[in-house]
Amino acid sequence: MDLDQFDHQILALMQKDARQTGAELADQVGLSPAACLRRLQRLRKIGAITREIAVLSDDVTGRNITLIVTLPLNRGRPDMRARFREYFGKLPEVKHLYHVTGEADLVLILECQTMEAYADFAERHFRMDEIKGYETNVVLQTLI
Amino acid sequence: MDLDQFDHQILALMQKDARQTGAELADQVGLSPAACLRRLQRLRKIGAITREIAVLSDDVTGRNITLIVTLPLNRGRPDMRARFREYFGKLPEVKHLYHVTGEADLVLILECQTMEAYADFAERHFRMDEIKGYETNVVLQTLI
DNA sequence: GTTGAAAGCCAGTAACT
DNA sequence: AGTTACTGGCTTTCAAC
């Protein structure tokens, strides 16, 4: 799979917006529309582009409150993170779970239906021994 | 935003594959192609579909380092966030951008190829007046 | 091999029933 | 909503590089 600069430009553009026309791509990468679309065809064929999907609005899914929660952990068993993944991975509210350096050890991206639902969630899931505490940032706006 | 059963079907299909034709959608939901495309138009217009994006194969991005960056902002013009979205939305490193309550005002989820690339990124993009500073958390492991 | 330009084709749009 | 006609983008061909 060898890609030149034009291919990478097209991929970057398509990653942001897959509905751009050949002419729009052409303007941005400096090739003709036909050349862009030929390359795009190839990028799909060789699997550089896995698929193209629609992103749905949060309020169509019903979970419209996003929260970023940082969890400092107490040092514990080495399989602790695997167990957290196991545990949080099953919960539909959990969109992402990162293990990070710095103060906090885990960062959760959650989506809940209401703040009450989040309060319940925290009450139920953040009370284990391994979790030293938690800090919540409510997302006012998901810009991207 | 009121959606009937047909709308929900179309959304579910588009979430899996946004390149289906009107005829393909029509086969699956049991309406005419034109009706499906009319609904699709509406779903985009009312924002039920936020955007449509290409998913790139992992080995094409080469971006293996994920970073969570919190940006405290100086109070500024009210269109500041729109301008940030405009600005960061164009950068392929930016996976997500949240406007949050609390200490930090913006939270960025980034993917970079190397730490040097991130240092460059920060140097180039976090030096504007509106940005008071930045705190970086390197993701050791993306658990979900 | 690649490109850009032009012709042909097909999907998306709009008007009408 | 469905059918039809129209428009515009995508695909293919071709000549030139």
Task: Describe, in plain words, how this protein is organized in 3D.
2 copies of one chain form a homodimer. By secondary structure, chain A is α+β, with helices and mostly antiparallel strands. Chain A has helices at 5-16, 22-29, 33-45, 58-61, 80-89, 115-125; strands at residues 49-56, 65-71, 94-100, 106-112, 135-142. Chain A has 2 domains: 5-45, Winged helix-like DNA-binding domain superfamily/Winged helix DNA-binding domain (Arc Repressor Mutant, subunit A, Orthogonal Bundle), CATH 1.10.10.10; 58-138, Lrp/AsnC effector binding domain/regulation of amino acid metabolism (RAM) domain (Alpha-Beta Plaits). Helices cover 40% and strands 26% of the residues of chain A. In chain A, strands 3-4-2-5 form a 4-stranded antiparallel β-sheet. In chain A, a hairpin with a 5-residue loop joins β3 (94-100) and β4. β5 of chain A pairs antiparallel with β3 (94-100) of chain B. Chain B binds a DNA duplex (17 and 17 nucleotides) through residues 21-23, 31-35, 37-38, 40-41.
User: Which oligomerization state do the chains in this entry correspond to?
Assistant: homodimer
CATH first level of the largest domain in chain A = Alpha Beta
Point out poorly predicted stretches of chain A: none
Spatial strand order of the main sheet of chain A: 3-4-2-5
Q: How many distinct helices of chain A?
A: 6
What is the chain-wise order of helices and strands of chain A?
HHHEHEHEEHE
What is the count of distinct domains of chain A?
Answer: 2
Q: Any idea of the CATH topology of the largest domain in chain A? A: Alpha-Beta Plaits
